[in-house]
User: Which sequence fits this backbone?
């Protein structure tokens, strides 16, 4: 089954404790992206990756890092989480532009709480 | 930069009735895609319908249809014969037609739709 998986689905942590949210897709997609969802703000892009070893900032990258060492994986790293990073996080992927697909596949979301 | 505006935070509809969710957007591009996503309590993002800007014909998917007014930059979603399972948050989203650039989706703030039995 074609899907995007995220782990963990729920995480409660404390300020300053490094954490990683994993994202994996099994569709051989080149493009992957992270969004955060906050009440009244919709979803906003954090980082994206056009391919392996190619990443770039989205609209709200502060406090986050990403890596893309393999095509299927795109982890989101919070080196020193703060309470304002409490949010619902989504990973998404889609094929390379021009390959015909016109939609993005979303993961199930990760609910992160930073106390 | 593109923006998407959903001005109504909440709406309610009687089961079996029709409801229209509004969305406006701003862009200087001429070629783009528009989407409506549904987010039920499970929080999964589900694509409801999409519209290519170069197509004049409004997209339809079963009970869901859109009214795309390109000149007015308006993209509303009509849900016919509303069902209890339609209760969710709905997001309007925009994406530039890809040309090697970031395939970023720009989302509105969302609207919470409740369905009264």
Assistant:
């Amino acid at each position: 089954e074609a899907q995007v998986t995220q782990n963990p689905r729920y995480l409660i942590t404390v300020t300053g404790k490094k954490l990683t949210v994993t994202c994996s897709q099994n569709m051989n997609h080149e493009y992957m992206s992270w969004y955060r969802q906050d009440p009244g703000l919709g979803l906003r892009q954090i980082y994206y990756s056009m391919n392996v070893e190619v990443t770039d900032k989205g609209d709200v990258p502060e406090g986050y890092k990403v890596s893309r060492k393999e095509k299927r994986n795109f982890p989101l790293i919070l080196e020193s989480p703060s309470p304002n990073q409490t949010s619902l996080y989504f990973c998404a992927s889609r094929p390379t532009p021009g390959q015909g697909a016109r939609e993005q596949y979303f993961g199930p979301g990760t609910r992160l709480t930073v106390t | 930069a593109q923006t998407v505006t959903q001005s109504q935070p909440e709406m309610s509809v009687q089961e079996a009735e029709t409801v229209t969710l509004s969305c406006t957007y701003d862009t200087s591009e001429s070629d783009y895609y528009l989407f409506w996503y549904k987010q039920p309590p499970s929080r999964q993002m589900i694509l409801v319908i999409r519209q290519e800007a170069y197509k004049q014909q409004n997209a339809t998917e079963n009970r869901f249809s859109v009214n795309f007014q390109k000149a007015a930059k308006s993209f509303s979603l009509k849900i016919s014969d509303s069902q209890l399972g339609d209760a969710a948050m709905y997001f309007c989203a925009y994406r530039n037609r890809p040309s090697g650039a970031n395939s970023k989706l720009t989302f509105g703030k969302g609207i919470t739709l409740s369905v009264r039995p």
The radius of gyration of chain A is 14 Å. Chain A touches chain B at residues 31, 33, 35, 40-45, 48, 50, 56, 58-59, 88, 90, 92, 94, 97-98, 102-104, 106, 108-109, 111 (CB under 8 Å). Residues 29 and 38 of chain A are 26 Å apart (CA to CA).
